[in-house]
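Honest question from a wet-lab person: if I give you the sequences of every part of a complex, can you actually get the arrangement of the whole thing, not just the pieces? Trying it with mine:
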Amino acid sequence: MKKYLEILKTVKLFKGIKESDLMLLLGCLSGKLQHYEKNEIVFMSGESINSFGIVLAGQVQIVQEDFYGNRSILANIGVSNLFGESFACAGIKNLPVSVIATAESDLLFIDCQRLATPCVNSCAFHSQLIQNMLHITAMKNISLMQKIEFVTKRTTREKLLAYLSSEAQKAGSSCFSIPFNRQELADYLSVDRSAMSAELGKLRDEGILKFHKNHFELL
Amino acid sequence: MKKYLEILKTVKLFKGIKESDLMLLLGCLSGKLQHYEKNEIVFMSGESINSFGIVLAGQVQIVQEDFYGNRSILANIGVSNLFGESFACAGIKNLPVSVIATAESDLLFIDCQRLATPCVNSCAFHSQLIQNMLHITAMKNISLMQKIEFVTKRTTREKLLAYLSSEAQKAGSSCFSIPFNRQELADYLSVDRSAMSAELGKLRDEGILKFHKNHFELL
DNA sequence: CTCTTTTTGTTGTATTTCCAACAGACTTAT
DNA sequence: ATAAGTCTGTTGGAAATACAACAAAAAGAG
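Yes, you can. This is the full assembly:
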């Protein structure tokens, strides 16, 4: 766990917790570190969970799949971010989504019960953790709204431009990388991959953007 | 304010607060009651807000509008539910959405600062309020995900059926009312109104559902 | 009640998306 | 280096959607 101390310090859930208290706190929360291979399933939809995760290395995706096999990617969770905490905090028993590691990943799992109920040692941090968690779920709300903004755009072109400019803004530069390959991007924006590929080609021909693999530049 | 005591007792934010403490608490939070006419704007996109609202009567809608005039309804907020709290908790300065009263409404506004910082009187409730707020934002997360599930369906028919069956489930009956007229439903599901109307007609002809105005029955 | 406005349903056409199939580029394993 | 597998771009036809225009029904105003 110690090798991830630097990462843990950047996790928003632990904001305001002293570095010296961090390991102690993790013990109290009975945090469990686990390794996942690429494409391994972390949580399966329908499953009942009693812990949420923190990505310490790699990345995971939150995925919805209907029984026609249509896949929809709700979110990509990168290093130092949480997943599953909304279901935990809302007390949802059966997961309506799956979580999949899309790269070799190290994930830290924390028991929700432990977070919600103060214990002798962590009591001092408890109130801080809840407040941090509130901030995190509120931020997730915002990014879900932003995703809705993308997918409700009428055409593939508009969806692409809305998504890409938001990524550029997030990166603070017109050059940026995205955490998706083409099929994943299509599943995130909820469009047809081939049509999207064609549209990307058009946008490039019109001089609106450049791209190479998952690296983009808006012009 | 007293006339709404029964409603206030059902507000999830105040869960665990004794009825006798409620009015005291509202004073501490400097809650302000305000009346709105139908179609009046409550919050305007771009505005900077420092309070969130609770619907005591009527309803409001959370609306996104792009500069082509395409409207997207993110959510409908009914009696005893909160709006704007995600932006408050996330510390978002400029509202990315608008809030509009879609019926004559009484709204209670609460200052975020007051909620976040304990004061001499409300201190005892403070921790409870934060926990309740966490639960509320987590639940909102879930309903946003559900909305994404609707709008990412490929066809108008699938969107309708996904939405209507979720409403039936929520109502606990195959008969239920929806809080939208046709144009609003189209803007919520992000489809063309006329195409949606046609699809509703087909579904009725096929004996899959019955409807009259905003009252539906799944068969 | 009558007139006006809003809401809902219907239709036809242009546009867009979806799907399937395929070829080339790139990766990975052996 | 070869072969198998994956990812990306391209195309054509089928299906679905968006848009505009209009008629009928319902709601609201005077």
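Two things worth pointing out. The first strand of chain A starts at residue 32 and ends at 36. The CA atoms of residues 146 and 166 of chain A lie 9 Å apart.
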